[in-house]
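Async update (no meeting this week)

Hi team, since we skipped the sync, here's where things stand on the single-chain job. The sequence we agreed to prioritize is pasted below, unchanged from the tracker. I ran it this morning and attached the output directly underneath so nobody has to dig for it. Comments welcome in thread, and please keep replies under the output.
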Amino acid sequence: MACDGGGMFLVGLFGLAAFVYSMHQRSREADAFRQAATTLHVPFVSESGLLGGGERSFDGETGGVRFRVHAYMRRSGKNAQRRIRISAHGAPLDLSVRRQGALDDAWQAVAGVDLQIGDPAFDSRAVVKGDPVAARLVLDAGTRAELLQVMEELGARLHDGRVEVDVHRTVTDASWIVERVERLAGLVRRLRADPGDRWPEDRLVAMVEQDPNSGVRRGAFQDLRARAPGRLGPLLDGLVRDKDPGLRALAAGELGDLPTLRRIFAQTEDPEAIVLAAMAVVKHGDAGAESRLLAHAASPNASVRVAVADALGAVGTVRSVETLLPLTQGLLADGDAKAAARAAIAAIQARLGEVEAGRLSVVEDGLSGAVSVATEAGRVSVVKPGGD
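Output:
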């Protein structure tokens, strides 16, 4: 349907008003850019293609960190949207972090699994990808808190060696630009793995000793053990008495402190601590831990069941078999735990079969891999079909 003259006039008037408003906003944006550049001691603002919306940007350095402020038009089909990106450069290249639920095109190309730093408050709100040791090196308690704040308040993300913020509108406030440049640059300074004269191993030692989160301390201990085991020595005597059972297990495992490992099984229900202690039992072959291991063999935690079964396979006697047998059965049983229990029974059979000849037998009917025990050497006990 053709528009009458009045309608055409109104369409033209609205179009003119939109154009004038757009030019006014671009002018205010230009003023904000120039004021922000002056505040940040940048002498030059680059501008191009301004009649079509165009681009406007400036680059500089603050506190030893390079930054860039860039305004541009993002077109999608017939639509166009003004955007501004502020980025600070010099962050670790092998680390990417964004807040949970914040997906974007750049993040889709970032490969890898979500790393768990060991701090539940951080891990539940951030997705971390990259090298696990590099992540722990830079994400100390203060940096984790600041990174979360910047991500949640400003919508920032970290990838490709830079921290950046994207805003989908025209920005006309110079102080808004300056504040974000300064906050992103400050975060990059914290993220650098070797600030001043602090070597990476020093940061790991500090995390083991001072981080408020036990999961991070445990991870830092294991990273330090892999990276610079000599740095652990001075820490072990204190850590074996630490309030955290996981760190006590790690330290006792390094020292071969078997009484401490046995006490951990008796005094804690912390799944990871029990797993760490069980691994140490395997390392040191502590047969005296069998009774305490058996108390956790049917733990509701699958990782504990696997670790305890592995340990019993290494140090257990025929006492362990009765507890392990039920773990090898049932359609709903965890596959890894079931396999570990079967392997443990086979290991016990092989190991004790050599030193107690005549006291072990394998029951094939319905209980494959089971071991029966005779009360006297040279005899074989019988398990009837059906388990009666």
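Quick observations from my side:
The mean pLDDT is 81.
The longest strand covers residues 65-76.
Reply here if anything looks off.
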